[in-house]
Design brief:
It is a single chain. The protein has helices at 14-25, 57-65, 71-75, 98-109, 116-137, 145-156, 176-183, 186-189, 202-214, 224-234, 279-282, 293-299, 373-379, 382-395, 412-417, 462-481, and strands spanning 3-10, 30-34, 50-51, 76-78, 83-87, 90-94, 216-219, 238-242, 245-250, 255-259, 266-273, 304-314, 325-328, 350-356, 362-372, 405-408, 425-426, 449-451. By secondary structure, it is an alpha/beta fold. Among the domains are: 3-75 and 220-300 and 428-491, FAD/NAD(P)-binding domain; 304-422.
Length: 492
Amino acid sequence: MSQHFDVIILGGRLSAVITAALLAKRGLRGLLVDQGELASMDAGLFYDLATVPSGSPVMEAVYRELGLESELPKKGRPLSPILQVVLPDQRLDLSPDRAHFLAELERGFGAAAQPVKAILDRWTSLEAEEGQYLSAAGELPAAGFFARRTADAALRKHEFLGQSLTEAQLFAGLPPLLAELFLAPLPFLTHFDARRPDEVKTARFLRPLLRMMRGLHRLDGSKGARGLFLEAIASRSFEVRRSAAESVEPGGKQVLVRLAGQREPVSAEVLIDASADLSGLDVVPNNLRKKDFAQVIQSVKPKGFLHTLSLEIDEAVVPPGLGEQALLLNGRRDPTRYDLSDPDAEDRPIWLTRRPSIDEARVQLVASHPVSTVRAHAQSLDHLEEVMRARIERLIPFLMDGHPEIHALSGASAIKHKQPVLPHPLYDLALDPRTGLTGVGTQTGWKNVLVAGPTVLPGLGAEGEYLSAIQAADQTGALIGGGKKKRTLASV
């Protein structure tokens, strides 16, 4: 006989634990199935840093409902600087204080940085307009004729959102290297890659970048941002179980889930898949799949990810002043070095996290680099790891004198070392050709099977995970208790 819950959530990503915390607070009995994601939590890695919620109605609403408004400053500390940018010949320490931020850019770029103040003012104004669009558009992605009509009507009032950064002239007057400084963080802040301004939509660029520039918090301990929400469900009627779905069988009134290593299935009124690639819905038997279901699943399969490498070295060889979070732009652009037809060959930004090692005399550097799944499968990741190490060695010339221990934290080799990190998926640039924000809708072909997580709003990054979580939680409550209608950003 199966164990029955009100709701089962598959995944351990940020959106999964937020959804669980909201539903637990509302009195529902649930099961959160951790498919290995929670084991990757680490407050020091970029993925689990907390962004400042100010300016995001949906993030503020989640913290307010869970009573966590005051927890962020108490349980963590703001990063200072928020980011250190390493260029071929200098370092820039970027602060959330606008005056300090501008002064640092002028120190590094001189008169070439003078247009930045006016550009940032314009970006901030456009970001406010984007918020108006998100509110007027209703639930995103828009599902159904009337919802799409509402979203399209809102978009016509803010057409700049669908323009590329080049078309909108958002980098006008900036030298290429300074423009790259602003563009380079995007694959780490969102779930879309970014190479050139002419292929990045304005909507996908503004909110994530400006949100990071307002500040990042490193939370105490080792649980990261997800730890806040896990604590919120710890004393409530939500169970967390380490397993994976072997099969999901949707039905009219309940969903049956068979978990790996467990003899008896579990069931629930509602199932929410909050995984990065909808792997929970991948195991729905073919004879139960709805029309066009396979196309939806395939459309959100990651086209790339961040490959993460760990380098543990003697602290004595680390340059003084190396930031806790650094972005390496010290790659080389010489086209004679690589095949121009190979999109992954040129050097890309590397996000570097510095953190203490167990050995007090050592330090760990965790480096992340965007890579396509095509390259990962065709050539493995060995060559990329050599390139990453060489670039870090340019930053730390005495790297090899520090007795480095190097191994991967993502990909197949990470499993061998038993230290995997949460994959950060990168989706197709054309997933939403209009604004570059939305992915797939929270609703599926089954009334009681929902979707949350990065597949819903990949272009909004962490904010998108908050919004998809609150949408999924509201839809679940309406299905189970006939409660209030699902909320959108407009009604938060």
